[in-house]
Specification:
alpha+beta, 36% helix, 100 residues, 4-stranded antiparallel beta sheet, Alpha-Beta Plaits
Length: 100
Protein backbone atom coordinates (compact mmCIF):
# COMPACT_ATOMS: atom_id res chain seq x y z
CA UNK A 1 0.00 0.00 0.00
CA UNK A 2 1.14 3.57 -0.74
CA UNK A 3 0.19 6.58 1.38
CA UNK A 4 -0.17 9.99 -0.30
CA UNK A 5 -0.16 12.92 2.12
CA UNK A 6 -0.56 16.53 0.97
CA UNK A 7 -0.47 19.74 3.01
CA UNK A 8 -1.69 23.00 1.52
CA UNK A 9 -1.66 26.60 2.64
CA UNK A 10 -4.43 28.78 1.28
CA UNK A 11 -3.62 32.12 -0.33
CA UNK A 12 -3.37 35.03 2.11
CA UNK A 13 -5.81 37.20 0.17
CA UNK A 14 -8.87 35.26 1.34
CA UNK A 15 -10.95 36.26 4.36
CA UNK A 16 -11.65 33.79 7.15
CA UNK A 17 -15.15 33.21 5.74
CA UNK A 18 -13.79 32.63 2.24
CA UNK A 19 -11.19 30.21 3.59
CA UNK A 20 -13.90 28.25 5.40
CA UNK A 21 -15.89 27.93 2.15
CA UNK A 22 -12.77 26.96 0.19
CA UNK A 23 -11.88 24.27 2.74
CA UNK A 24 -15.42 22.88 2.55
CA UNK A 25 -15.15 22.72 -1.25
CA UNK A 26 -11.75 21.02 -1.19
CA UNK A 27 -12.96 18.44 1.34
CA UNK A 28 -16.16 17.67 -0.56
CA UNK A 29 -14.37 17.52 -3.90
CA UNK A 30 -11.53 15.26 -2.87
CA UNK A 31 -13.52 12.97 -0.59
CA UNK A 32 -16.07 12.71 -3.40
CA UNK A 33 -13.45 10.83 -5.42
CA UNK A 34 -13.91 7.74 -3.22
CA UNK A 35 -15.07 4.84 -5.37
CA UNK A 36 -14.35 6.67 -8.63
CA UNK A 37 -10.62 6.06 -9.07
CA UNK A 38 -9.12 2.60 -9.56
CA UNK A 39 -6.73 1.66 -6.78
CA UNK A 40 -7.81 4.47 -4.41
CA UNK A 41 -8.36 2.71 -1.09
CA UNK A 42 -8.94 5.61 1.33
CA UNK A 43 -9.28 9.38 1.06
CA UNK A 44 -9.76 11.83 3.92
CA UNK A 45 -9.36 15.59 4.08
CA UNK A 46 -8.76 17.38 7.37
CA UNK A 47 -9.53 21.11 7.50
CA UNK A 48 -9.66 21.62 11.26
CA UNK A 49 -6.04 21.97 12.33
CA UNK A 50 -5.06 23.25 15.75
CA UNK A 51 -3.83 26.83 16.14
CA UNK A 52 -0.24 25.51 16.21
CA UNK A 53 -0.59 24.33 12.58
CA UNK A 54 0.97 26.15 9.66
CA UNK A 55 -1.06 24.32 7.01
CA UNK A 56 -4.74 24.87 6.25
CA UNK A 57 -5.72 21.58 4.61
CA UNK A 58 -4.39 18.01 4.73
CA UNK A 59 -5.14 15.20 2.31
CA UNK A 60 -4.53 11.72 3.70
CA UNK A 61 -5.04 9.04 1.06
CA UNK A 62 -4.02 5.45 0.41
CA UNK A 63 -3.56 3.53 -2.83
CA UNK A 64 -3.05 -0.12 -3.72
CA UNK A 65 0.40 0.64 -5.12
CA UNK A 66 2.54 3.32 -6.76
CA UNK A 67 0.98 2.67 -10.17
CA UNK A 68 -2.48 3.41 -8.74
CA UNK A 69 -1.12 6.68 -7.31
CA UNK A 70 0.26 7.61 -10.73
CA UNK A 71 -3.12 6.84 -12.30
CA UNK A 72 -4.88 9.01 -9.71
CA UNK A 73 -2.62 11.96 -10.57
CA UNK A 74 -3.89 12.03 -14.18
CA UNK A 75 -7.40 10.67 -13.69
CA UNK A 76 -9.93 13.17 -15.17
CA UNK A 77 -12.10 13.21 -12.01
CA UNK A 78 -9.07 14.08 -9.85
CA UNK A 79 -7.73 16.65 -12.31
CA UNK A 80 -11.13 18.37 -12.38
CA UNK A 81 -11.25 18.66 -8.59
CA UNK A 82 -7.65 19.86 -8.44
CA UNK A 83 -8.20 22.46 -11.16
CA UNK A 84 -11.52 23.75 -9.81
CA UNK A 85 -11.34 23.33 -6.02
CA UNK A 86 -7.65 23.28 -5.03
CA UNK A 87 -5.11 24.96 -7.32
CA UNK A 88 -6.86 28.34 -7.68
CA UNK A 89 -6.91 28.83 -3.90
CA UNK A 90 -3.61 27.43 -2.63
CA UNK A 91 -0.22 29.10 -2.39
CA UNK A 92 1.92 26.19 -1.16
CA UNK A 93 1.77 22.42 -1.48
CA UNK A 94 3.90 19.83 0.26
CA UNK A 95 3.69 16.12 -0.54
CA UNK A 96 4.95 12.95 1.07
CA UNK A 97 4.35 9.60 -0.61
CA UNK A 98 5.54 6.42 1.10
CA UNK A 99 5.03 2.68 1.19
CA UNK A 100 3.30 1.07 4.14
Amino acid sequence: MVKHIILWQLKDEFTAEEKAEIKTGIKAGLEGLAGKIPGLLEIKVNTEGLSSSNADVMLDSAFENEEALKGYAVHPEHVKVADEKVRPYTKTRMCLDYEV
